[in-house]
Amino acid sequence: MEEIYTGYCPTPIGIFGVQCTQQALVWAGFATPLHQKRASTEVPALLKQALQQVAEYFTGKRRIFELPLAPEGSAFYQSVWNKLLQIPYGETTSYGALAASLGKPKACRAVGNANHNNPIGLIIPCHRVIGSHGSLTGYASGLERKQWLLDWEKNYTFVRLNNT
Length: 164
Hints:
The chain has about 160 residues and is α+β, with helices and mostly antiparallel strands.
């Protein structure tokens, strides 16, 4: 089994944790006491890079994460997570639209389940999926964080577009 390295980054909405191997990220999310593990004493380049990119996101300097990812999940989950990576910064989609884009228009609940089980939150942007009528629906890190992230991306996109 490959060694897993852990690191943390403070953000405006809580401590964000990242876990990776030497090759790829395997977990990322807001660290609850259940997730908090001792930070690795050895800090490989990928862990440094991931924490730097998270910090850049929260200062408005990064919109797209450029990191190798290795989330574990079924083929269906993988297909949903790959679609999530295609949702542009500052935009949202619905569970229904995501299911339809996968060629499975009746799989809204399955898409929601894959979204909920996304092991690499924020970086695989599951927070950009909302209900069909624009309502906020489940987010493993809490609806308050989801709303904050959506507002952050929307407001920062607006500011950036008007200041270029």
